[in-house]
Automatic annotation (TrEMBL):
Stored InterPro entries: Acnase/IPM_dHydase_lsu_aba_1/3, Acoase/IPM_deHydtase_lsu_aba, Aconitase/3IPM_dehydase_swvl, Aconitase/IPM_isomerase, Aconitase_4Fe-4S_BS, Aconitase_4Fe-4S_dom, Aconitase_dom2, Aconitase_mito-like
Keywords: Iron, Iron-sulfur, Lyase, Metal-binding, Transit peptide, Tricarboxylic acid cycle
Name used for this protein in its record: Aconitate hydratase A
GO biological process: tricarboxylic acid cycle
């Protein structure tokens, strides 16, 4: 089935003229990313060149995708936008609210029982507003998008940071908060600062144990978790062409872990094969007709230093398998050094669980490569040392893998198959014993490995690798095993080596599925009723945030000064809190509970300046709100790293926090704060972070003159009567200041649609 073929056909018909117009404006050859960006300008053909990293640009994305956890808040906002139908093709995917516990069938049924109210809400809203709905069990949003909606040269936004996965099919696909999705669904232009460009030249060809996952694990080690911020990563070279389409998707997926706006590859034969394998011959034929415009110009790739802001080169023939971690996806260690590094750092060597799948690595090729390793354990008489789990990416992949005996191969070595959902990757894993908080090691093929991410245990050391390497490590049961060189002991006492993995790019018999889980919306949804039950603990209709009163904020208190890494997981935890993603007041009870207080090195324990006692962050903030006292949050570098969840911005806003002041922001979180009418500020002098004291009262001295490219001044009055004035920067343009003045971007949309 091909979705939205007319939209794709119309886009390709306009593409050559739009690229040519942009080429004339730029006066030079173009990268692929530039072709896609300039061909999606809100005003049509390009008439000016935009400055990378500075110009704010309005775009017209082709489509929107939302997962169930973020879709609740996005659609609650969209319901206020005054539209009777989404302006662009949009979809909702139920993948986050399914907890991995026993196995696929029982876990799915339990999720349906527990989350029925939310699923019914999402189904009815989708039906009413012309939005495609993918039921629980249909699969993980990014795998389903790759199989059904992604197309070369397109632009999409999605309410999940790993929307970037669609770059594997040559898209510019960008993770956003729900308010951004509302803009696009409401027929408004979508604003983005023109990204910088990082080129990654891939030479050589992979073999043996090395996989596409190792490319991005290597890149993460080079760029770190913030090195891609504000940039699109474009992969090119003969090595790029040698990768499968789903392998490209894996690389793009984890681009979120280096902070990149998105990542992409030029259209090539592997993408055409994947389109045809997934029954999209019409799309492949159309793409072939404009093939030259779906990749960067030859001159760009011949002289990349002239066209990219940064160039990285990786020889795939020399690339070694990696396991990255623990606690951060950019701690990159080649497998040959992992044992020594683990011992030096005191990381637990015994691997308790190996987990494969997730939106990053659950393609047919991934499963076949991992299965080729798994079958060796049985055939060679090796007892698997660790627990082992498999999470298929979609019902189509699961059904096909079951048909071809691949899932049976995993079950033969004791593998447990979970539902087609995010599961352990996002903390939806009911891991027995995790509450004991014991120090332990797991290995997985997911994308993130922050503390508490998978199982809620802060002492779980999680390492990220390819599915085949994770399978091998689970078989061996120890971090100091290198499958390239080491042997294992069979049950009969013989020493044997694992053979190199082998995989199948696309199934030889084609993909198959009995029920893909898709629900088409009503052609006319005007009679569809959307019900939010009064008193529901899961869903809550939104009240608009109050507009700014036009005055300086004074007498504010410091809620918390966060030390070190403060991701969206720290600001708004997932796991058991996912159940409240549609109820702003209830989920606000987890606000900043994972952030480390710089004054006592503890989590969820801050000073209440009203009475001098210490309490939980949300409780203290609610007391400030009740007393009418504004507050600010202070943070470190890359504040808001990780997920796109806008709850991390909406919750502090709901509780009365007025400003976030940090050394630097992750891109999506900074935008989310702006959309919700918050002040997102950065220190002009990072050392001023150290001047802020626990008992400070904060006054904004010149907020009344808030304007683009103009610093603000904050006064921090200390308990002893002394004070420090701190200069802070911001990146607000006139439109974004309008959001702040109105109370939120949504408030402005409502005014305009009224």
């Amino acid at each position: 089935m091909v979705f939205d073929l007319d939209m794709i056909r119309d886009y390709y018909a306009d593409l050559p003229a739009r690229v040519e117009a942009a080429r004339k404006v730029l006066g030079r050859p173009m990268t692929l990313a530039e072709k896609i960006l300039y061909s999606h300008l809100w005003d049509g053909k390009a008439t000016e060149a935009f400055e990378r990293g500075k110009s704010y640009v309005e775009f017209a994305p082709d489509r929107v995708a939302m997962q169930d956890a973020t879709a609740q808040m996005a659609l609650l906002q969209f319901m206020q936008a005054g539209r009777d139908k989404a302006a662009v093709p949009s979809t909702v995917h139920c993948d986050h609210l399914i907890q991995a516990r026993v196995g696929a069938d029982k876990d799915l049924q339990e999720s349906m029982n527990k989350n029925n109210e939310v699923f019914n809400f999402l189904s009815s809203v989708s039906n009413k507003y012309g939005i495609g709905f993918w039921k629980p069990g249909a699969g993980i949003i990014h795998q389903v998008v790759l199989e059904n909606y992604a197309f070369p040269g397109g632009m999409m936004i999605g309410t999940d940071s790993h929307t970037v996965n669609a770059g594997g099919l040559g898209m510019v696909a960008i993770g956003v908060g729900g308010a951004d999705a509302v803009d696009v669904m409401a027929g408004m232009p979508w604003e983005l600062r023109q990204p910088k460009l990082i080129g990654v030249k891939l030479t050589g060809k992979m073999s043996g144990w090395t996989s596409a996952k190792d490319v991005i694990l290597k890149v993460a080690g080079i760029l770190t978790v913030k090195g891609g911020t504000g940039a699109i990563i474009e992969y090119f070279g003969e090595g790029a062409k040698s990768l499968s389409c789903t392998g490209k998707g894996t690389i793009c997926n984890m681009g979120a872990e280096v902070g990149a706006t998105t990542s992409t590859f030029g259209y090539d034969d592997s993408m055409e094969r994947y389109l045809r394998s997934t029954d999209r011959n019409d799309v492949a034929d159309l793409a072939n007709g404009v093939r030259e415009h779906l990749t960067g110009d030859d001159e760009v790739y011949s002289n990349p230093e002239q066209y990219f802001d940064q160039v990285i080169e990786i020889n795939l023939s020399e690339l070694e398998p990696h396991l990255n971690g623990p606690f951060s996806p950019d701690i990159a260690t080649p497998i040959s050094k992992l044992g020594d590094v683990a011992r030096e750092n005191g990381w637990p060597l015994d691997i308790e669980v190996g987990l494969i799948g997730s939106c990053t690595n659950s393609s047919y090729e991934d499963l076949t490569r991992a299965a080729s390793v798994a079958t060796q354990a049985k055939e060679k008489g090796i007892k698997v040392k660790s627990e082992f789990t498999v999470t298929p990416g979609s019902e189509q992949v699961r059904f096909t893998a079951e048909r071809d005996g691949i899932l049976h191969d995993f079950e033969e070595i004791g593998g447990k198959v979970f539902a087609n959902a995010c599961g352990p990757c996002i903390g939806q894993w009911a891991r027995a014993g995790a509450e004991k908080a014991e120090k332990n090691t797991i290995v997985h093929s997911f994308n993130r490995n922050f503390a508490k991410r998978a199982d809620g245990n802060p002492n779980t050391h999680a390492f990220v690798g390819s599915p085949e390497l994770v399978t091998a490590m689970a078989i061996a049961g120890t971090l100091d095993f290198n499958p390239l060189t080491d042997t294992l002991t069979t049950e009969s006492g013989e020493q044997v080596k694992l053979d190199e993995p082998s995989g199948i790019e696309n199934p030889e018999k084609g993909y198959a599925v009995e029920d893909n889980g898709y629900q088409a919306p009503a052609k006319d949804g005007s009679s569809v009723e959307v019900v939010v039950k009064e008193g529901s603990e899961r869903l809550q209709l939104l009240d608009p945030f109050s507009p700014w009163d036009g005055k300086n904020i004074s007498g504010a208190k410091l809620l918390i000064k966060a030390a070190g890494k403060c991701t969206t997981d720290h600001i708004s935890m997932a796991g058991p809190w996912l159940r409240y993603r549609g109820h702003l007041d209830n989920i606000a009870n987890n606000t900043l509970t994972g952030a480390v207080n710089a004054y006592n090195s503890e989590t969820n324990k801050v000073k209440n300046q009203l009475n001098g006692t210490y309490g939980e962050v949300p409780a203290v903030q609610r007391e400030y709100k009740a007393a009418g006292i504004p507050t600010i949050v202070v943070g470190d570098h890359n504040y808001g790293e990780g997920s796109s969840r806008e709850h991390a911005a909406m919750q502090p806003r709901h509780l009365g926090v007025r400003a976030i002041l940090v050394k630097s922001f992750a891109r999506i979180h900074e935008t989310n704060l702006k959309k919700q009418g918050m002040l997102a500020l950065t220190f002009d002098n990072e050392s001023d972070y150290d001047k802020i004291q626990e008992d400070d009262t904060i006054n904004f001295l010149d907020l009344e003159a808030f304007a683009p490219d103009r610093q603000l001044t904050l006064e921090f009055v200390h308990a002893d009567g002394s004070s420090d004035q701190v200069k802070v920067n911001h990146t607000y343009n006139e439109q974004q200041i309008g959001w702040f003045k109105a109370g939120s971007a949504l408030n402005l949309i409502k005014q305009q649609n009224a």
